[in-house]
Amino acid sequence: MRARLILAFLLAPLGLVLPAQGQAAGEGGSDGLGYAGLEICNDTAVPQSVSLAYRDDGRWMSHGWWGLPPETCERVLDGSLKNRFYYFRSEAENWQFLDERISFCTAPGDFTIYGDRDCAIRGYDSAFFAKIDTNIAAAPSASDQPTVAYVTRLSLHSRPKADGAGPLSTAIPGAGATADLAFDQDVTFQGCEERGDGRVICKLVMGAGQLCVTNDGMTDPAIIDRLQALDPGTPVRVSGESLTSGDRVTFASLNSLTERAETRHDLMLDDLAGRWVSQADAYDLFIIEGASRHNFYGSVETMTELLSVQTACDDASGTGPYMVAQAEDGGPTHCYRIISLTEGELVLSYMPRGTELRYHRQDQPLN
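-> structure tokens emitted (367 positions)
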């Protein structure tokens, strides 16, 4: 087995792949239309831990971890590949993973997790992954069935940290310590979700992340009913106490809930609602609904972010307003200065680099 893994590692830089086990190498014939499995090769100098995410019967699934010593490969999927895109993450001490801001749920030990939303709420961590595009013709096969695995290499997205310092992982932490702090502040209602066990989770966007309220008896049921009747994006003022607080997700009990007048930033968030397509890449698009931004590449949803419009954003300099995007389960805040917003076009400046991003609206606002 180890000899096979080392051979796969040696072939990977040449763009070659191994036949599936039991299939003789060198068999020719008609063109194969797909791959029989997915292999990940560790062509770095250190041991790496690898996790994988993909669509499984219409549901997102993340799975890990595989331990890969240097100069070895691991077949992480067997059988015909059903998807074009797969997503992976690797972690190693004092190495940096070059992710593509595509978020999935993870856990410290072995895990198989269905669903890519509400990771912290469900007790998981969340981390950013990178994309594997298998849209490359497979090697010829003597049969109509795929016989070779698609191979990707870790060095494409993993490199040593410049100073060897910093955290071992950029995983996004889940909910943590007890907070027990009173608050009274303006927020934006994001939506409520009913779980199969009868649990209701209502989410609100605040400047520091996401506020979650559940029907666990800590909040008056009348307030839960009022939340469920609100439209996404409704500006409200709430007061209550924090129960537990993580990096960006706070569970709380509410004492009061009142709708408030819209500010100019609330009105701009309303104007942002709709489907926006990049003028540079038609596959790159996002949909803003209420206080959420759903990011897509083609038909694949890559991430959901909490969205707000604010006067300032972290260390970004210059006059606002800013569109502030934060992954639902934590991670870095992304700041976009709003240069112009019309009915048909949105021009942003990604801070702090100042990269200009242009989008055109593909439909009318969703509200």
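The chain has three helices and 24 strands.
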